[in-house]
């Protein structure tokens, strides 16, 4: 089987590199740099990972690449690139400051095989404290950033490359393309690593390995052991013996329900009710660690007793998955304590059995995909992780049969309610905890003194989830959840009014985001030319003349995500970062806090970083886009249009009734010098346009808001002019007459207001 080797230098990103390679349907393995396996024909290429070390450290990892460099395709990432430079005649020195975060990569050689298909400028993710100051003579520079001259290089005459950035991180917008260039085009891998292919190959290998031998497997009812059982069953059929132990600490009715599920899967499963033993041994024990040890010991004893009754059994099967393997042979040496499973711990030594681990090559999400490809029911595949010691660790204090029964009943109500509400699949793990306290309450006409439980639901970044990124105030939105079946996102809205941003997340990174605008239903007004407008700015929670409730949010032209407003003009160079205007950023995503960047990006880069205000000089104007695009907003609603369903950003002609030449129209459009804004009156209705200024491209600062000149209004249209876009502008200078213009054009990095009209 063809594969890519990844040599681990201790980086936190190493597993993510493997995940990205696997997503390309290419098999890969992670090995410590000092334990490189034999290089045979199956190895198509090698990737050197990053590292927390510096190549200048005395204890820096130093791999032996004599069998690899110049003989196989080789890609060094971050530390890997620095090692390829310093170890072969180049120089690496401390960077003036640690480089961490986004940067714009300029491709110097678009014809290079590693760079093929990448835009001329693309966003990448940097994380390093050193920088390559000099490369060996035969090293060719193929990409750079503003701060990193040697961002990527190619070794002349070899299929060896080094890159200073991290392509495996989502913030590197074209990172997957780069990895595909290396793994598929350069290494020649056939992208045949699929769930179906894994099942076929694994079943074949298991048949050859096990022959007619008998195998015993301890089932837990969870995903890993269930998938391992089905794979083994496909390979050896009736020679697989499964044991499912009821400790008395499972969920309510789980023992019978799981056994029934396994029966329909054709598995040879024996259920053992050992609840009396477990609960008896746990009586009076309160220390959580002692509970775990007792439960682990009892599982070994019960399972051992059942296994020895199977004549001539030779193998013990375990549901070990790839993260466990990596952990046990990390670059820092084998872990002192390898993760032990509650139901098999200690068995190999006691039973003198050989070990078979059919899932040891798979990550958790791959296990689920393999299970689905084999037709395992979603009830098993989608099951929440359940702790090995069961409810024992969800009962604080001593354990009694009565407490177990209480928690089982509560847990069932909780889980059933999540399922009924369509939320079960949006939660990674949910559980109830029985607290060692009681509370006073009322039941009927009587006072009660009963047990308390805590309910907990946890989302995970391991899969696809939804979450809020920021809100105007604490509690404005909560309970954000993704329905993976329908694709719908659900959330709970609080009593307040304001704005929030929710996002679809994968591996802790934003895939897409939505502006949640919580306000009273906006009224509409038909203008003289027939255009129907909302009565308030996008993001505004009211229409009070002169009130900040009418301000709304700021937008860069063509971007769907809003930027918070302010209540006064800002002058500081860091105004954008300082003036959060009371917004609450989700502490779970500190890397996504409000940011300002003078590096242009792509639409994908902007979507992945909805809280970053971008700016760069592109063409004849300033644009947040690395390549100008005039189609993001238009006459018809587009994916990047920020307005709610049924509404869109208007054209300039929608405001033609407000203007005569460059002046206001008496009695129709009127500057209000008291409240700083403009009124438009038509058909007995009046619309209020606050002069809330704009966010300047150069610093993100708010200017023109209640200023000495009276203030100004800037409202984007959907129309464009070359690399610029048209907008409605109005102002009033206190020393002279005001002016208004619906056809000014301005650079797209400015942050302007939006007033939505009906489609």
Structure characterization notes:
With 759 residues, the chain is α+β, with helices and mostly antiparallel strands. It has 3 domains: 3-186, Class I glutamine amidotransferase (GATase) domain (Rossmann fold, 3-Layer(aba) Sandwich); 195-381, Rossmann fold (3-Layer(aba) Sandwich), CATH 3.40.50; 521-758, no CATH class. The protein is 20% helix and 31% strand. The protein has 15 helices and 42 strands. It has a 9-stranded mixed beta sheet, with helices on both faces. Helix 6 links the parallel strand 11 and strand 12. The longest helix is centred in the middle third of the chain and has 20 residues, at 288-307. It is globular. 43% of the residues are buried.
List keywords for this structure.
single chain, 759 residues, alpha+beta, 15 helices, 31% strand
What is the 3D form?
globular
Number of domains: 3
* Poorly predicted sequence stretches spanning 5 or more consecutive residues: 330-346
Oligomer: single chain
State the secondary-structure class.
alpha+beta
Question: What's the β-strand tally?
Answer: 42
Largest sheet: 9 strands, mixed
How many helices? The count is 15
Task: Provide the β-strand percentage band.
Answer: 25-35%
In angstroms, what is the radius of gyration?
31 Å
- Side by side, the strands of the main sheet go 2-1-3-4-9-8-7-5-6
Helix content: 10-25%
Mean model confidence by pLDDT = 85
């Amino acid at each position: 089987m063809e594969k890519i080797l990844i040599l681990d230098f201790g980086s936190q990103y190493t597993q993510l590199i493997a995940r990205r390679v696997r997503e390309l349907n290419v098999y890969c393995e992670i090995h410590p740099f000092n334990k490189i396996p034999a290089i045979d024909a199956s190895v198509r290429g090698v990737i050197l990972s990053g590292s927390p070390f510096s190549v200048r450290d005395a204890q820096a990892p130093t791999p032996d690449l004599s069998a690899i460099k110049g003989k196989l395709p080789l890609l060094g990432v971050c530390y890997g690139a620095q090692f390829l430079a310093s170890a072969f005649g180049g120089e690496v020195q401390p960077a003036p400051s640690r480089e961490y975060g986004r940067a714009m990569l300029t491709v110097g050689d678009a014809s290079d095989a590693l760079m093929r298909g990448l835009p001329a400028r693309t966003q990448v993710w940097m994380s390093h404290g050193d920088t390559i100051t000099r490369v060996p003579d035969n090293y060719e520079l193929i990409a750079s950033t503003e701060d990193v001259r040697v961002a990527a290089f190619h070794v002349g005459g070899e299929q060896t490359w080094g890159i200073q950035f991290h392509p495996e991180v989502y913030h590197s917008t074209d990172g997957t393309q780069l990895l595909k260039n290396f793994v598929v085009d350069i290494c020649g891998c056939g992208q045949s690593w699929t769930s179906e292919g894994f099942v076929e190959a694994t079943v074949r290998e298991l048949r050859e390995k096990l022959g007619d031998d008998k195998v015993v497997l301890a089932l837990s009812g969870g995903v890993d052991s269930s998938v391992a059982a089905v794979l083994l069953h496909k390979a050896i059929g009736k020679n697989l013996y499964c044991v499912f132990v009821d400790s008395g600490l499972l969920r309510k009715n789980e023992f019978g329900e799981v056994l029934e599920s396994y029966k329909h899967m054709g598995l040879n499963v024996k259920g053992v009710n050992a609840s009396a033993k477990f609960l008896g041994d746990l009586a009076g024990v309160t220390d959580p660690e002692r509970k775990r040890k007792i439960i682990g010991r009892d599982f070994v004893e019960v399972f051992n007793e059942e296994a020895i009754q199977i004549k001539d059994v030779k193998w013990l099967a375990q549901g070990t998955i790839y993260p466990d393997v990596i952990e046990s042979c990390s670059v820092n040496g084998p872990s002192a304590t390898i993760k032990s499973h509650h139901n098999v711990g200690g068995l190999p030594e006691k039973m003198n059995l050989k070990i078979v681990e059919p899932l040891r090559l798979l990550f958790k999400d791959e296990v689920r995909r393999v299970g689905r490809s084999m037709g395992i029911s979603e009830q098993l595949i989608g099951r929440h992780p359940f702790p090995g010691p069961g409810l024992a660790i969800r009962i604080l204090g001593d354990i009694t049969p009565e407490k177990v029964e209480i928690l089982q009943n509560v847990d069932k109500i909780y889980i059933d309610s999540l399922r009924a509400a369509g939320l079960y699949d949006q939660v990674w793990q949910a559980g109830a905890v029985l607290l060692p306290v009681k509370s006073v309450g009322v039941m009927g006409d009587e006072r009660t003194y009963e047990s308390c439980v805590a309910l907990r639901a946890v989302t995970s970044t391991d899969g696809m989830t939804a979450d809020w990124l920021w809100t105007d105030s604490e509690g404005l939105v909560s309970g954000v959840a993704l329905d993976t079946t329908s694709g719908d996102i659900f959330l709970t809205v609080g009593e307040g009014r304001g704005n929030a941003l929710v996002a679809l997340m994968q591996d802790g990174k934003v895939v897409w985001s939505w502006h949640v605008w919580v306000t009273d239903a906006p009224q509409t007004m038909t203008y003289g030319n027939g255009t129907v407008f909302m009565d308030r700015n996008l993001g505004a929670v009211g229409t009070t003349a002169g009130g900040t409730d009418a301000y709304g949010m700021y937008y860069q032209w063509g971007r769907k995500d809003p930027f918070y407003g302010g209540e006064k003009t800002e002058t500081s160079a860091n105004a954008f970062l300082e003036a959060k205007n009371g917004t609450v950023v989700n502490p779970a995503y500190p890397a996504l806090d409000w940011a300002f960047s003078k590096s242009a990006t792509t639409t994908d880069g902007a979507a992945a970083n909805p809280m970053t205000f971008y700016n760069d000089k592109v063409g004849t104007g300033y644009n947040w886009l690395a390549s100008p695009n005039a189609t993001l907003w238009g006459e018809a609603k587009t994916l990047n249009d920020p307005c709610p369903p049924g509404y869109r950003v208007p054209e300039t002609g929608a405001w033609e009734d407000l203007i005569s030449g460059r002046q206001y129209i008496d009695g129709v459009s009127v500057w209000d010098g008291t409240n700083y804004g403009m009124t438009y009156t038509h058909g007995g209705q009046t619309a209020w346009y606050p002069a809330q200024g704009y966010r300047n491209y150069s610093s993100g600062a708010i200017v023109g808001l209640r200023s000495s000149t009276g203030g100004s209004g800037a409202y984007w249209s959907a129309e464009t002019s070359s690399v610029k876009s048209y907008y409605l502008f109005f102002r009033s200078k206190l020393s002279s007459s005001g002016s208004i213009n619906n056809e000014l054009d301005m650079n797209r990095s400015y942050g302007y207001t939006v007033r939505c009209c009906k489609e």
